[in-house]
């Protein structure tokens, strides 16, 4: 059995036994009553010590005892997680900080951080006896679900909004998912997916709603703790859309402290796009207000985030803060990440890097600081955004003189 002890409402703190409650707190309702999975840490500690990790699988399944999965899944080896954390002195220099390590989440199964959550979701769906799994997504949650469902041999129904980038749509379709392109906003797609799950009994992968999925996102924090073991960063930069990625990373770091595998904490810099920054605003005002702007970072273009409370709690608990960055800053960070750190990342992936520059400019991050950044998704997913950031090739006649003229210019 898993080491899950109980579920706790993040709004009213009420505890529930896992088999006695659905996905949300009945007292607070589906909008506010997000549940958090709490483990029997003493039991986890008996099977998960640093020595157990030495020979563990080079995937996020190495943290099995901290995942809400039955032990019969211990053999699962889908290639997810344990992404490299690489020093980038050149990018550190450009950002004006002492040390930068980048965690390239584009190396995951379907090329984004979301694979961490989807893989756990699909295994839970298998456990629950569901015949199919569904989700509404701006893109990466869906592409990762399609890839993981393919590995599990389970049908996937995906609701995407009109704005889904072509690369992500191609990923969904090639993995064999049934794709509904909903002619409306992400919110319309989300509601329709919820209704369909209710009506047809599909397993719901919508992260905001399903407490077990965030548990997969937690492995980003667990890995960061292990990879930085003796050299903790002062800050960790994370882009924020709905908010459960940042909450998951903080939870992973906290659990590694509870297990006494690490003895340090690090401050979290949550980064939102200036056009769509409801969580950064709510951090100041304490309440969520809809924003009317826009951003080309589609993966964090979430005007009505459902995990804003969790995100704010996580960032506060870490003694961190939020900054916002413009699309121009994000495009600059895409170029810098690719040219100085060798990582081609999608706009939402580069948002963390843009946030570091912004935080240095605002005096939030000290130039002497060591920072780690999650680059959450692969750049090939959104070619049109990359082309906007990258510019055009030099068009020439097949003539060496032209090459010389342009190359020397
Ligand atoms: C989903 C996503 C994020 C943000 O995660 P949230 O949980 O929505 O805050 C950041 N980057 C990429 C590439 C994503 O797909």
What can you tell me about this protein's structure?
With 409 residues, the protein is of the alpha/beta class. It has a domain at 85-111 and 214-390: Rossmann fold, CATH 3.40.50. Helix content is 41%, strand content 15%. The protein contains 16 helices and 13 strands. The protein has helices spanning 29-32, 41-47, 50-53, 89-95, 114-127, 140-152, 166-174, 186-200, 211-227, 244-258, 278-285, 308-317, 327-340, 347-361, 383-390, 400-408; strands spanning 4-9, 15-16, 35-39, 85-87, 99-104, 133-137, 156-161, 178-182, 203-204, 235-239, 267-273, 321-325, 370-375. The chain has a six-stranded mixed sheet, sandwiched between helices. Helix 7 (166-174) links the parallel strand 7 and strand 8. The protein is globular. Bound molecules: pyridoxal-5'-phosphate. Pyridoxal-5'-phosphate is lined by residues 112-114, 140, 239-246, 299-300, 302, 346, 348-349, 376-377.
């Amino acid at each position: 059995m898993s080491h899950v002890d109980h579920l706790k409402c993040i709004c009213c703190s009420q505890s529930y036994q896992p088999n006695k409650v659905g996905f949300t707190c009945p007292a607070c309702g589906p909008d506010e009553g997000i549940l958090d999975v709490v483990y029997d840490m003493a039991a986890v500690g008996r099977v998960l010590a640093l020595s157990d990790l030495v020979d563990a699988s080079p995937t996020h399944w190495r943290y099995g005892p901290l995942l809400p999965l039955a032990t019969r899944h211990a053999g699962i080896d889908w290639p997810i997680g344990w992404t490299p954390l690489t020093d980038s002195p050149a990018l550190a220099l450009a950002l004006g900080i002492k040390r930068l390590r980048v965690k390239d989440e584009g190396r995951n199964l379907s090329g984004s951080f979301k694979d961490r959550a989807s893989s756990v979701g699909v295994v839970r769906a298998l456990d629950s006896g569901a015949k199919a799994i569904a989700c509404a997504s701006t893109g990466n949650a869906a592409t990762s679900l399609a890839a993981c469902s393919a590995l599990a041999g389970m049908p996937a129904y995906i609701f995407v909004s009109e704005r889904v980038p072509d690369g992500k749509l191609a990923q969904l379709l090639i993995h064999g998912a049934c794709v509904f392109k909903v002619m409306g906003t992400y919110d319309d797609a989300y509601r329709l997916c919820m209704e369909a799950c209710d009506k047809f009994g599909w397993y719901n992968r919508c992260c905001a709603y399903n407490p077990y999925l965030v548990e997969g996102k937690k492995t980003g924090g667990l890995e960061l703790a292990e990879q930085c073991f003796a050299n903790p960063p002062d800050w960790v930069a994370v882009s924020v859309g709905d908010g459960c990625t940042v909450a998951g990373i903080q939870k992973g770091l906290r659990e590694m402290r509870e297990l006494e595998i690490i003895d340090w904490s690090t401050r979290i810099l949550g980064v939102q796009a200036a056009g769509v920054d409801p969580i950064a605003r709510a951090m100041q005002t304490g309440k969520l207000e809809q924003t009317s702007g826009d951003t080309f970072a589609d993966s964090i273009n979430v005007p009505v985030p459902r995990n804003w409370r969790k995100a704010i709690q996580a960032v506060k608990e870490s003694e961190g803060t939020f900054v916002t960055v413009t699309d121009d800053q994000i495009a600059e960070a895409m170029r810098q990440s690719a040219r100085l750190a060798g990582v081609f990342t999608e706009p939402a992936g580069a948002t963390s890097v843009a946030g570091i520059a912004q935080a240095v400019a605002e005096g939030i991050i000290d130039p002497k600081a060591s920072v780690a950044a999650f680059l959450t998704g692969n750049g090939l997913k959104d070619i049109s955004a990359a082309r906007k950031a990258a510019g055009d090739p030099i068009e020439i006649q097949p003539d060496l003189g032209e090459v010389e003229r342009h190359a020397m210019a």
